[in-house]
Amino acid sequence: MLESRLPSRTNGLNLPLHPLQFLVLFVLIYFGLIWNCVTVPALPTVWQPAGYTILAVILISHVITYAVATIIDPADEMISHRLVKGTSASLDRSIHKHAIENNFCYLCECMVGDKSKHCSICNKCVEVFDHHCVWLNNCVGRKNYRTFIACLFTGLMGSIIIGSINLMLFIAYFTDKNRGDILQPYAELLKTSTESQVSTVTTGTAQFYLFFRPAPYEAFLAIVALTTVMGFIASGLLVHLLGFHVYLWFKKLTTYELIIQEREKADLEAQRKASNPSIQEREEQATTSTSCLKSVKPKRSIVPVSTTSMKELQQKQKTEYSLV
After folding, report:
1. How far apart are CA 211 and CA 66, in angstroms?
2. Catalytic residue among 133, 139, 151, 292, which?
């Protein structure tokens, strides 16, 4: 009877797709539409060619790097040379503590590289494993790590530009009405107005556009504000992630290796505290013991007094009063 085997994922397009992939798709479409149909048309005419071109290059680069990082199969080279596909259905933990021991994976049943790790989600060994990325629905390893970093960088550049320019438009709505240097609707109004009308320009008379159609300025402001917030949220997430990988690059570590190091440090610290309490802990214990002793009140001892002694004491007091 043949042993049952489990299939392995090839890349991030294998079903089931992760919900965050749909979120990425929505954000890319939203940013692309708002930038080209709302943000850039609101900029001065001389700025618009540069606005369309710069973000188009960044957005296309981001989409390409995201797609490549998702489609690449980061599996260990030895996996593709196996005659039998898939992995063993189970691992006997009583015999093997880890799936990979001495560079042999007992799930993939083949030799793998020194830094390869078996991903339980993709169900395969990944060459120079870094981490499993839920945004890509794929593992990040040696084969797609550089593409992954390029995807983060282009995404960060695009989100910073989108957030910053939309924030500028939002501020200009309140500050640019009498100059028309930033918002094209104000510039067009000032151009067509007579000298007597310039001083009476108001936000209600300027015509704003959404998707190249006239729209109320409240709707324009709401879209610009929402896009600003989304752009800076995306920027914050990408700065954190890209900065973390820059730190790993300086340390010459992968994400998985850093996690293992931190786990080993925590285990050693717990063992050290259990076997040899620190001086500070001993002082805390001594302080606690002292405070407990101070909180215990000594009991008063009651000395019994005999009846004879009481009579003698009363007789002595009477004698003293008589002398007075």
Report:
1. 27
2. 133
